[in-house]
Design goal:
Elements: E1 6-9, E2 16-17, H1 19-32, H2 40-45, H3 51-58, H4 66-78, E3 86-87, H5 91-100, E4 105-108, H6 113-122, E5 132-133, H7 146-155, E6 162-166, H8 169-177, E7 182-185, E8 199-201
Parallel strand pairs: 1-4, 1-6, 4-5, 6-7, 7-8
Antiparallel strand pairs: 2-3
Helix pairs in contact: 1-4, 3-4
């Protein structure tokens, strides 16, 4: 038995739907090089491993150097962070309920910290999270476990009591690398890899149905997984 005592959240595809703004920024970048626009689905498939990898993938069919293009993408994206970006349904009231109940919450994303903070502030979510860790806050990107463990250390909590909530294989892999359970957001736009999460969420508010997660299986037992949609 172990009780949930803190939650670490991914950003894109978990708290927010940012697909259109990311796509518009990428296509503004491509237009600078007289390249045709990419579809929403194509750009979405590139998201999850940080801005540098997003730009690299978006320019893979060109001779443009990532180091040259990355600052331009960041400028384009900074101009449209929340033009179309919005929270998923239930995010604010669920976070309010969790924090009111005494659960510390953090954001851990591969998106740069400045953009992350700007988006969270614009959507009135920043006050729910301490700390907010971006892809450039530490030297480590998910699925490296270091940032996960730093957050648990800050909270003085054992890793096994911290639930990671995300929509990408980097969240599941990073959580397990840090010895933490993971809830996978099926409503997001990420992809699931070989490792399986302990829980699946059909909606963000499903978190309120498992307030202490005392019945989570041990991480070593990959054959016993819970699915909130069947509970």
């Amino acid at each position: 038995m172990r009780a949930l005592r803190g939650l670490i959240f991914d950003l894109d595809g978990t708290l927010i739907d940012s697909r259109q703004d990311l796509t518009n920024a990428i296509n503004a970048l491509r237009a600078e090089y007289a390249l045709p626009p990419l579809s929403l689905a194509t750009v979405t498939s590139f998201v999850g491993n940080g801005a540098r990898n997003l730009v690299r993938r978006a320019l893979a069919d060109t001779p443009v150097q990532v180091d040259q293009a990355l600052p331009r993408f960041q400028q384009h994206y900074a101009q449209r962070l929340t033009e179309c970006t919005c929270c998923y349904p239930g995010v604010a009231p669920t976070l309010a309920a969790l924090t009111a109940a005494g659960y510390p919450c953090a954001v851990l994303t591969n998106k740069p910290e400045a953009a992350t903070r700007a988006i969270l502030s614009a959507l009135n979510l920043a006050a729910f999270f301490t700390p907010i860790v971006g892809g450039d806050t530490t030297p480590y990107l998910k699925p490296d476990p270091h940032a996960f463990l730093l957050i648990a250390q800050q909270w003085r909590l054992p890793p096994r009591t911290v639930l990671v909530v995300g929509d990408h294989d980097t969240d599941v892999d990073g959580a397990h690398n840090a010895g933490m359970p993971c809830a996978f957001a099926r409503f997001g736009f990420g992809t699931l890899g070989a490792q399986q999460p302990e829980l699946f969420l059909e909606a963000f508010s499903d978190l309120l149905r498992v307030p202490d997660l005392s019945d989570l299986p041990d991480l070593s037992d990959s054959s016993d997984r819970s699915d909130l949609s069947n509970s």
